[in-house]
Specification:
Layout: H1 20-29, H2 88-95, H3 98-120, H4 122-133, H5 137-146, H6 149-168, H7 179-208, H8 236-239, H9 251-297, H10 299-305, H11 320-327
Helix pairs in contact: 3-6, 4-6, 6-7, 6-9, 9-10
């Protein structure tokens, strides 16, 4: 009962039965007594101070450069914010692959032709909208019941023919043409369209009055007769891309369809030159990867994972320039087009 009188018995101490290693571990785990840290001694001399960074000069005049068209303030406000601006088109041209550039050019050209054709058919579109909205209630009800069939048919045909004329005249295919040049092509396409409509009106009037049908002249050169179907015999590869054979079109539309097809084929050949160099490099890399896989896993697995590149297309069996000379013999041979630019080209 030593504990009752304040004594301490070593026999009843439970720590005596512990292992020495465990005792040392428990001793190490005990918290250390708090020792206040010594205050740092004051330095005799201050250390070298880093040099101050110069602040940008707010009054610095930036180099004189014209404001881009993206700026909403062309009077010079916020000009310093545009000094390092790079147009998105320049970035895409620098980073895009030839395939992406060709696809973007084709898309831009389709959009440009679509917009120009709608502008040339503004009157027909207005007539269609007036049929649905303008006029008395009886005309509106009649328009709703017939869905303005005649006006819609006229507008759709105008758009299709205007787009064909723009394609045949090479709208948005030259990188050297200015906006004024492209606008002249658009106006000339509208002039040729109305010349075709006048001829259709003359034919309809002659049929109603049992008079002979007026002779058909060339759409692009009224001083010479229109080429025949035999003269406009297009290659099969080119005719397969058309919606229907050339002889199934009306006689006064065949020349337009043939010229548009030739112009699109010529534009495709221009794009093919860029794609050919890119395809050659891509095929060489493909052959290297296929050779490594064949050496490692065998020929069957290597050619299964990376097939052989497609064979190079055969030489084109016809010349587009020669076809144009055969069809339009009285016209001078068309000049070679410049390479199309990215900004408007679908």
């Amino acid at each position: 009962m030593g504990w009752f009188w304040g004594g301490k018995s070593s026999e009843n101490d439970p720590a005596q039965s512990l292992d020495n290693d465990l005792k040392q571990f428990l001793k190490d785990q005990q918290p250390r007594p708090y020792v206040p840290a010594e205050l740092p001694k004051p330095a005799d001399q201050p250390g070298p101070t880093p040099p101050e960074q110069p602040l940008p000069d707010a009054n610095k005049s930036f180099e004189d450069r014209p404001l881009p068209k993206e700026s909403l303030f062309q009077d010079g406000r916020y000009k310093d914010l545009w000094k390092t601006y790079i147009p998105q088109n320049d970035i895409e041209v620098a980073t895009a692959t030839p395939v992406e550039r060709v696809l973007a050019a084709r898309k831009d050209r389709r959009q440009s032709i679509h917009k120009a054709a709608l502008e040339n058919c503004a009157f027909e579109e207005e007539m269609q909208q007036d049929c649905f909205k303008a006029g008395a209630w009886s005309k509106k009800i009649k328009g709703r019941m017939t869905m303005c069939h005649e006006e819609t048919k006229t507008f759709n045909r105008c758009y299709a023919l205007q787009a064909k004329f723009l394609q045949s005249l090479g709208y948005m295919t030259s990188s050297t043409n200015s906006n004024e040049d492209e606008e002249k092509i658009q106006m000339h396409a509208d002039k040729l369209y109305h010349r075709m409509m006048d001829y259709e009106a003359e034919v309809d009037e002659a049929r109603r009055n049992n008079r002979p049908i007026p002779p058909l002249s060339s759409l692009f050169n009224p001083n010479r007769p229109a080429p025949t179907v035999e003269q406009m015999a297009l290659p099969k590869a080119m005719e397969d891309k058309m919606k229907k054979p050339l002889h199934e079109y009306p006689p006064h539309e065949r020349e337009l369809v043939a010229r548009a097809a030739l112009q699109e084929a010529k534009l495709t050949d221009l794009y093919a030159e860029d794609l050919f160099n890119y395809t050659v490099t891509m095929n060489e890399d493909r052959k290297k990867r296929q050779a490594w896989l064949t050496k490692t896993f065998g020929e069957a697995i290597g050619k299964f994972l990376i097939p052989d590149p497609p064979k190079e297309p055969a030489v084109q069996p016809y010349s587009i320039e020669q076809l144009e000379r055969d069809i339009w013999q009285d016209e001078p041979s068309p000049q070679k087009h410049n390479r199309p630019s990215n900004p408007p080209d679908p």
